[in-house]
Amino acid sequence: GDSVTQMEGPVTLSEEAFLTINCTYTATGYPSLFWYVQYPGEGLQLLLKATKADDKGSNKGFEATYRKETTSFHLEKGSVQVSDSAVYFCALNTGGFKTIFGAGTRLFVKA
Amino acid sequence: NAGVTQTPKFQVLKTGQSMTLQCAQDMNHEYMSWYRQDPGMGLRLIHYSVGAGITDQGEVPNGYNVSRSTTEDFPLRLLSAAPSQTSVYFCASSQRGLAETQYFGPGTRLLVL
Hints:
The complex is a heterodimer of chains A (111) and B (113). Helix content of chain A is 0%, strand content 51%. Chain A is built from no helices and twelve strands.
């Protein structure tokens, strides 16, 4: 069945460091891919998305490229801030009534 | 717009008790869903609705009931709580289907003793 695998956390970085959170997926068909972010005490909110191969989603300095050949959608940011501390979820949807979420990766950014 | 609201924020139940988790949205979204979030497991879909009067089961529906009498409200009922239902519950809504952007409520943290 469809699945999403993302790197285990927590990830701890110093402010202004480069961030990569790996995400790979297994799906039949051509899924849409998403990154959601959950700040402490809040619900999830969409960070970025890509709907077809080679699309790049971007928002708030974060980027992810839909790589069909490697079935990946890695999240990157060039310079993280303390305010980026959160849990990040990779997710996919193949068009049905079901979004598959990864287990989440917690990011801590130290000042 | 308040977006998606959930009540209560936190609840403690004893095994066998029943309760209803409330969810409301003011964005006129057709689609609503309930997820549970457990450590190391991401979010799992419990039930969803594609419009008033229409609901269906998700991945982990056992022990939960839902109904959708209005576009705005989508309550989740636990008929007889069990410790395995200790979790954080999120309600979400979307405009054109679950493949589109979902808007999440702040969550309800439930502890079943």
